[in-house]
Amino acid sequence: MAEKMLKFVQTAQAMPEKRSASERAKDFDEIYREFAATKADEQASRCSQCGVPFCQVHCPLHNNIPDWLRMTAEGRLEEAYELSQATNTFPEICGRICPQDRLCEGNCVIEQSGHGTVTIGSIEKYITEKAWESGWVQTPKPVHGERPQSIGIIGAGPAGLAAADKLRRKGYQVHVYDRYDRPGGLLIYGIPNFKLEKNVVERRTALLEAAGVKFHMNFEVGRDASLDDLRKKHDAVLIATGVYKARELQAPGSGLENIVPAMTYLTASNKNGLGDKVAEYDSGTLNAAGKKIVVIGGGDTAMDCVRTAIRQGATAVHCLYRRDKANMPGSMREVKNAEEEGVEFVWLSLPKSFRGEGKVTAVHAGRMKLGPADASGRQVPVEIENADFDQPADIVIKALGFDPEDLPQAFKAPHLEVTRWGTVKISARSKMTNIPGVFAAGDIVRGASLVVWAIRDGRDCADAIHQFIQAKAQPAAAAAE
User: Fold this and answer.
1) How far apart are CA 6 and CA 34, in angstroms?
2) How far apart are CA 150 and CA 134, in angstroms?
3) Which intervals hold domain Dihydroprymidine dehydrogenase (predicted)?
4) In this structure, are residues 162 and 232 in contact, taking their beta carbons and an 8 Å threshold?
5) In whole angstroms, what is the distance from residue 312 CA to residue 215 CA?
6) 474: which of 99, 181, 224, 238 lies 20 to 30 Å off by Cα?
C-alpha cells in the first residue's frame, strides 16, 4: 500500500480542468471536464489512509472513502465502484453536487495539515462514470426473490428514489407517486444543468423503472387520492415530498410584479432546458435575458439562481446577503464559480423594501455590520444608520430557503402529526409517523437540507419499512401454521 498511497507530500492537489468562465457562461453544460484515468489514480494516491477517516465520519452516508480511493489508485475501478455504491444509491450525483468542501474534503486530514484535500468528489464522479461506460452498473434485482407486499412512496426526489431502490432490492412491489411529469424532484427541476446534467438523473430513474419500480407521474396526493386511500392500497406508505414552499420576505412592495421565488425561477429554466414549453419563460417573466437581476440569499439555491441568470444573458447580476462572505452558508466553491462568471456580491446588505409601480424597479436595502455572536455562534447583522441604498432590478429572485407545505390539509389527513415548524413528526427509532404504517424521510422531516442527507434518510427509512412489514408478517405466518 505504501507504494501506491501516501503521496500527498510529493503530489500536489489537482481538480479536473474547469472550463473558462467566458466559455461556460454561454451554456448550461457542466463546468468541469472529466478526470483522465492517470490523473484520477494519481489524485487518489494522495490519500493518507489515516487511522480515523474523518472524511468518512463527516459523510452523511458514511461512504468507505479511504478504501475506494486505495482501489482507484491501484487500478481496481470495478471494485471501487462496487464499494462506493454499497453505501450510496447515487454516487455519480453526490460526486457532482455535494458540497464536499463542507463535508468529506473539508475534514480531510491532509487538508488540515496544509497539503490540500484529496479531491474526493471528482474521483467519486470518475469512478461512477467509468462504471456506466463499462457496464458495471446493473439493474437493481431482488436478492431473495419477489415479495407480495407493496410500498407506496409519495415523492420522486432523492429520498423517495433512494428508498425505492433499496426496497426493490429487498423484493417489494414499489410504487412512486409524484405531482411532476418526470421523476427526480429537486434533481430535475431545482438543480441547474451546469451542476447536474439531466441525463445523469434520467438514466438512474430508467434503471429503477427497468427493475420494476412503478412510477405514477402527474399524481397529486389529496387530489387524485388521499393519504388514507394509499394506505388501503399499500402495506406501507413513505412520505418523501421534500419542502418547496418558499419563505417570504415581508417588506413594503413585496407584492410588486417580477419578484419571484427561487424554485419558480429555476423550475422554469430547467423545464425550458428539457424542451418543455414554458409560457412565463418565453414571455420574459422568468427569463433573465437583457435584464438586471437581483438575488436575495446566501445559500446554494441563491448560487444556482445567480449562475443561471448569467447564462440566460442578464445584463447585470447582483446577490444581496446580510452577512459577509466568510459567514455565507453556501459552498465556497459555488461562490468562487459565480464570481468568476461575473456575479457581483453585495455583502452585508439587508433588503428593506422594493421600489416600483406595478413592476419592481429596485431593491431598497440597508448596509449592515456584524455584531456579537448569538446562541448559534454566528455574528448577528446590525444595521448601519443612514447607509441605505437602491439596487436596480428588473427581476428579483427570493432565495431565502424553504418551508414545508401543510401536508395534513393537502393530503386530506388531519390526523397526521407535524412539528411546530410544519415538518412531519416521526419516531427517531422506527421512522414512522403517528399513523401506523406511514413513514417519512428527507427534507419533509429534517427541513431543507442537502441531497446527500435525503439519500441517507431514504435508505434508513427503507430498512425501517422492511422491519415493520416483516414484524407484521411473522404473527400472520405463525397463525397460518
Assistant:
1) 23
2) 33
3) 24-135
4) no
5) 32
6) 238
231-234-235-241 Cα dihedral, nearest 10 degrees: -70
pLDDT of 476 reads 58
Superfamily classification of domain 150-243+404-480: FAD/NAD(P)-binding domain (3.50.50.60)
Q: Which residues pair with 458 in a beta bridge?
A: none
Q: Which residue has the cell 424521510?
A: 441
Do the bridges between strand 316-320 and strand 344-346 make them parallel or antiparallel, or are there none, so unpaired? Answer: parallel
List Cβ neighbours of 436 (8 Å cut-off, separation of 6 or more).
none
Is the domain 21-134 a CATH 1.10.10.10 member? no
Residue ranges covered by each domain of the chain: 21-134, 150-243+404-480, 248-401
Q: Which CATH architecture has domain 248-401?
A: 3-Layer(bba) Sandwich (3.50)
pLDDT tens digits for 263-281? 999 999 999 999 999 999 9
Collect all residues with Cβ–Cβ distance below 8 Å to 308 and sequence separation of at least 6: 192, 265, 266, 269, 288
Q: What are phi and psi of 468, to 5 degrees?
A: -65, -50
**First vs last C-alpha separation in the chain:** 55
pLDDT, greater one: 394 or 377 = 394
Return the C-alpha torsion angle 205, 209, 213, 218, nearest 10. Answer: 70
DSSP letters, 159-226, are HHHHHHHHHHHTT-EEEEE-SSSSTTTHHHHTS-TTTS-HHHHHHHHHHHHHTTPEEE-S--BTTTB-
Cell of 58: 463527516
Q: Which secondary structure element, helix H or strand E, spans residue 245, and what is its range?
A: strand 245-246
Distance CA 474, CA 430 (A): 18
> Quick one: CA dihedral 312, 313, 314, 318, positive or negative?
positive
Q: What SS3 class is residue 478?
A: helix
In whole angstroms, give the CA distance from residue 97 to residue 386.
41
CA dist 78 and 304 (Å) reads 33
- Which residue type occupies 398? K
Mean pLDDT check: name the lowest of 143-157, 325-339, 357-371. Answer: 325-339
